[in-house]
């Protein structure tokens, strides 16, 4: 199969890549573009470690084809901080120790950011259900949920 | 917990590796690449049990894009009659686990591996390998494996003079249990089973190996010990350890499951044969089929008590699944089962049972939850029959300083009683329950571990600090080390950078496992840092031309010890670092020690559960973990261990299990069907840190990470009993079982 030439936007940067028609967006990011912040925990849409946003919508990049990125706006963990300034969620995850091994963290952060964009004032239950697609085996979720709620409160205060 | 005497120990500092972890730039094993890199793929057995009559790799080798093929013939053979121990592992089993030798012993057992220009070509080529199998009858469950006439996995294993699937036993005895039971007013004996569960780390095993033309190998991999990777890969490939450099990638969870190698030796041989760097990454299916898990178990526990609750005797027998090769964590089960209690007459016996499942790997307090499960459930029933509060029953029999445990040691100062008292006084324990809710408690113990650790502490020319240790940081240990080093030096913790060295750059360090990392690495870091302070004081003495004994190190600077020492303005670390060459030169100290003094850890859990009688679901509505941690150097990561362990226990108790087809194949090798707890399954997990300092450690540290898995299975199960009045003795307590039991309330009793 001939490789496809795709033009897209990733973290605000116009980006081009070549990919096999059956190659997942996760493999494109990791293997073609060397953006390894998105992780593969399962490859089947069950762990959320590969979470990115596609035109603002939260998706598992392991379930998306690279060719679907054509003409779209993609956001990944690599675009979350602004230079040396961390996103408030990233900062709060560190302050509140919301990660242990950190393999789930990029996906958690992307999913949490997309939650707060949709719902700046989520209840604990809403956070838990929104993040239900993001597995973490280390933390028991407690500190993650608290960090998301605290960030939401802080961002509301700042807004 | 606020600390008034320490500046950094006990503070919730930001971990040194934090920014990399939240921005996606931290390099885990699968994130590493090299120029010219090719990909490896593993051919795995489709059978649960089969003799390998022949393997023909010629078609695969001829396939375009294929660069190398490896089979068991390329792996160093360790004959079955000569044990070769490496830590708790035996290379006889390791060489047969990384690649099936005489037989395929489980569905997913590696048969061969291929390296090719792409992952897809490597996978295609695997399908071209022709394997002639003689399929043999298989056996999965313990009862079937120990039954008369069971298919025997290994003809070299005998038990009681006959070929058997029982590969070994461990036994502990104290006192006279028959006399003890004769004294009892109440004796309860019950049978229990638990299912094998996977460690469930989110990062699949992965490695990248490059063997250069001179035979020197560099390995990047995700493991709980780069020195273990070096040793095992060396033994399995025949490459001397001095020619292997094992570089620890960031590790995406392990929980014990990454204390052995799977891919590294295969990738090393493939790289050697192909002359190219080879990358191998397991799929989630491979992880579930062929790595880990921990043992399933069956057990019988019998406990006798006086009317006042005093235990007179306890007896536990435990059968643990080892998987296809020997090595179930029997020691953890028989050692930890009765460890929280002062028992005059006790006996535990454990069996290591092989069957056609993947070989077990360590999982957080290996074996201990299996031992504790039956004991903590029987104690719950005894408390009910005596009309005693279950915490009071435990308090009555709690082990304390001076107690001689059934598994041997006499305990030093420790905080088990404190965990029970804190539980009793906890607001959680005294809050009324709602409808369909129940509350359960249970306790648990883990040995903890010392062992070899190395640290290099260097003062940079600008007066900051670089600490290198040899243990992969799996849950924030770098933060604890920074706190300790900053505390001792009296400087801001941000001036301390903490790195994990590779096998060529730091001295031998044993695994990240056994809850030993902060315990052991703080000992070597403390020693190195103290030596540095000594050097700094000598340097100041030289500059001031006074006696080194007359210099004190305080708040990050050298000061004259008193008026008699002379009047000199203090010299800071920065100033001394800049003048290091005036005396002795660069400032750095290494320490390598086989650490001792790791004392056991104890904890108690309180669980509230709510049962949906229609759906049979058990929802955890409240959970509190109380544990003696000795000293919480970084309370957030201590709490994180307590919470993470509890969450894994909840999954084990309620949902997680492997499903096998009748052909002996794993039918649920993915996160959809192997159901680990998700965020919406759990409440907040409350923690209560108890600090009874370990008298044998400079900071009072005890291991933390493993204890919190141990009590959880029974705490959940006892809570379910309290809610619905049914004693589930077989895990998991999954919704169909609950619905069935509620329909037939007497059947489960
Ligand atoms: S890797 Fe995409 S959901 Fe797990
Ligand atoms: S921090 Fe390890 S999986 Fe979430």
Describe the structure using short key phrases.
heterodimer; A: 159 residues; alpha+beta; Ubiquitin-like (UB roll); DNA polymerase, domain 1; 2 domains; five-stranded mixed beta sheet; 5 helices; B: 749 residues; Aldehyde Oxidoreductase, domain 3; Aldehyde Oxidoreductase, domain 4; 3 domains; seven-stranded mixed beta sheet; binds FE2/S2 (inorganic) cluster
Describe the fold and architecture.
The complex is a heterodimer of chains A (159) and B (749). Chain A has a five-stranded mixed β-sheet, with helices on both faces. Chain A has 159 residues and is of the alpha+beta class. In chain A, helix 2 (88-95) packs across helix 5. Chain A is globular and about 50 Å long. Chain A has helices spanning 25-32, 88-95, 105-118, 124-130, 142-158, and strands at 4-10, 13-19, 51-54, 57-60, 73-75. In chain A, strand 3 and strand 4 (57-60) form a beta hairpin. By secondary structure, chain B is an alpha+beta fold. Chain B folds into three domains: 32-136 and 203-252 and 258-290, Aldehyde oxidase/xanthine dehydrogenase, a/b hammerhead (Aldehyde Oxidoreductase, domain 3), CATH 3.90.1170.50; 297-448 and 599-741, Aldehyde oxidase/xanthine dehydrogenase, molybdopterin binding domain (Aldehyde Oxidoreductase, domain 4, 2-Layer Sandwich); 450-595, Aldehyde oxidase/xanthine dehydrogenase, molybdopterin binding domain (Aldehyde Oxidoreductase, domain 4, 2-Layer Sandwich). Chain B is 27% helix and 25% strand. In chain B, the strands form eight sheets. Chain B has a seven-stranded mixed β-sheet. A five-stranded mixed β-sheet of chain B has the order 11-19-18-17-12. In chain B, strand 4 (85-86) and strand 5 (89-90) form a beta hairpin. The longest helix of chain B has 28 residues, at 517-544. Chain B is globular. The chains are: A alpha+beta (159), B alpha+beta (749). The interface between A and B is large, with 57 and 58 residues. The structure holds FE2/S2 (inorganic) cluster (2 copies). The site of one FE2/S2 (inorganic) cluster has 10 residues of chain A, from loops.
């Amino acid at each position: 199969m001939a490789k496809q030439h795709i033009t897209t936007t990733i973290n605000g940067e116009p980006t081009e890549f070549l990919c096999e028609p059956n190659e997942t967006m996760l493999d494109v990011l990791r293997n073609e573009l060397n953006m390894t912040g998105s992780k593969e925990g399962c490859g089947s849409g069950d762990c959320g470690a590969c979470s990115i946003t596609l035109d603002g919508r939260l998706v598992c990049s392991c379930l998306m084809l690279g060719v679907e990125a054509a003409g779209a706006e993609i956001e990944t963990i690599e675009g979350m901080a602004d230079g040396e300034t961390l996103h408030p969620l990233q900062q709060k995850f560190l302050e509140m120790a919301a990660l242990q091994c950190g393999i789930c963290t990029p996906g958690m952060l992307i999913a949490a950011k997309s939650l707060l964009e949709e719902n700046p004032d989520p209840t604990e239950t809403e956070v838990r259900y929104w993040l239900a697609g993001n597995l973490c085996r280390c933390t028991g979720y407690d500190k993650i949920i608290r960090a998301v709620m605290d960030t939401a409160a802080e961002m509301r205060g700042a807004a | 917990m606020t600390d008034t005497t320490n500046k950094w120990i006990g503070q919730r500092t930001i971990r040194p590796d934090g920014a990399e972890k939240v921005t996606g730039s931290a390099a885990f094993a699968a994130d590493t690449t090299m120029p010219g890199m090719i990909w490896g793929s593993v051919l795995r057995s489709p059978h649960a049990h089969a003799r390998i009559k022949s393997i023909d790799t010629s078609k695969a080798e001829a396939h375009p894009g294929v660069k190398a093929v490896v089979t068991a013939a390329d792996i160093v053979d360790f004959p079955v009659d000569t044990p070769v121990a490496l830590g708790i592992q035996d290379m006889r089993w390791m060489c047969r686990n990384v690649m099936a030798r005489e037989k395929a012993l489980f569905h997913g057992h590696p048969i061969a591996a291929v390296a090719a220009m792409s992952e897809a070509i490597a996978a295609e080529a695997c399908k071209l390998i022709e394997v002639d199998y003689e399929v043999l009858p298989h056996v999965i469950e313990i009862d079937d494996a120990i039954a008369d006439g069971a298919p025997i996995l290994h003809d070299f294993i005998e038990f009681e003079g006959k070929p058997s699937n029982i590969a070994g036993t461990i036994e502990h005895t104290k006192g006279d249990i028959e006399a003890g039971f004769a004294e009892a007013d109440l004796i309860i004996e019950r049978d229990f089973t638990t299912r094998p569960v996977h460690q469930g780390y989110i990062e699949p095993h992965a490695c990248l190996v490059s063997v250069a033309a001179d035979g020197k190998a560099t390995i990047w991999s995700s493991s709980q010990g780069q020195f273990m990777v070096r040793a095992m890969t060396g033994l399995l490939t025949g490459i001397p350890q001095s020619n292997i450099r094992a570089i620890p990638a960031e590790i995406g969870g392990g929980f014990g499951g990454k204390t052995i190698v799977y891919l590294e030796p295969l990738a090393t041989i493939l790289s050697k044969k192909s002359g190219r760097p080879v990358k191998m990454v397991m799929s989630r299916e491979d992880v579930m089929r062929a790595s880990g898990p921990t043992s399933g178990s069956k057990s019988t526990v019998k406990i006798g008590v006086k009317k006042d609750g005093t235990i007179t005797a306890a007896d536990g027998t435990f059968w643990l699944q080892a998987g296809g090769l020997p090595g179930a964590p029997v020691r953890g089960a028989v050692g930890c089962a009765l460890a929280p209690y002062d028992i005059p007459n006790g006996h535990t016996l454990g069996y290591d049972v092989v069957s056609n499942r993947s070989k077990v790997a360590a999982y957080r307090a290996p074996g201990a939850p299996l031992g504790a499960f039956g004991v903590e459930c029987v104690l719950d029933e005894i408390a009910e029959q005596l009309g005693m509060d279950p915490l009071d029953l435990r308090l009555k029999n709690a082990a304390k300083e001076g107690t001689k445990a059934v598994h041997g040691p006499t305990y030093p100062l420790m905080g088990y009683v404190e965990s029970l008292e804190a539980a009793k006084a906890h607001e959680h324990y005294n809050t009324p329950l709602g409808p369909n809710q129940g509350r359960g408690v249970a306790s648990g113990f883990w040995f903890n571990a010392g062992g070899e650790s190395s640290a290099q502490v260097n003062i940079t020319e600008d007066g900051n600090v670089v600490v290198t240790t040899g243990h992969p940081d799996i849950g924030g240990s770098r933060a604890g080390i920074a706190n300790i080093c900053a505390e001792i030096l009296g400087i801001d913790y941000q001036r301390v950078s903490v790195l994990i060295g590779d096998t060529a750059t730091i001295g031998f360090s044993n695994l990240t496992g056994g809850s030993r990392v902060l315990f052991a690495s703080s000992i070597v870091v403390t020693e190195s840092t103290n030596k540095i302070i000594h050097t700094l004081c000598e340097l100041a003495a030289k500059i001031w031309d006074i006696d080194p004994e007359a210099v004190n190190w305080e708040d990050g600077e050298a000061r004259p010890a008193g008026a008699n020492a002379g009047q000199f303005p203090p010299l800071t670390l920065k100033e001394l670092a800049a003048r290091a060459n005036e005396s002795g030169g660069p400032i750095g100290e290494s320490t390598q020690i086989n650490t001792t003094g790791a004392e056991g850890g104890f904890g108690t859990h309180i669980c509230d559960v709510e049962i949906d009688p229609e759906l049979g679901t058990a929802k955890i509505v409240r959970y509190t973990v109380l544990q003696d941690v000795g000293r919480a150097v970084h309370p957030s990561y201590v709490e994180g261990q307590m919470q993470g362990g509890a969450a894994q226990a909840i999954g084990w108790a309620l949902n997680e299990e492997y499903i096998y087809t009748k052909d002996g194949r794993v039918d649920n090798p993915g996160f959809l069907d192997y159901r680990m707890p998700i965020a919406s399954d759990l409440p907040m997990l409350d923690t209560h840190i108890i600090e009874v300092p370990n008298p044998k450690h400079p900071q009072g540290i005890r291991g933390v990470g493993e204890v919190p898995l141990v009590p959880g299975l029974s705490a959940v199960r006892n809570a379910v009993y309290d809610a619905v009045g049914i004693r589930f003795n077989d895990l998991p307590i999954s919704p169909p079982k609950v619905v069935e039991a509620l329909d037939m309330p007497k059947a489960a009793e």
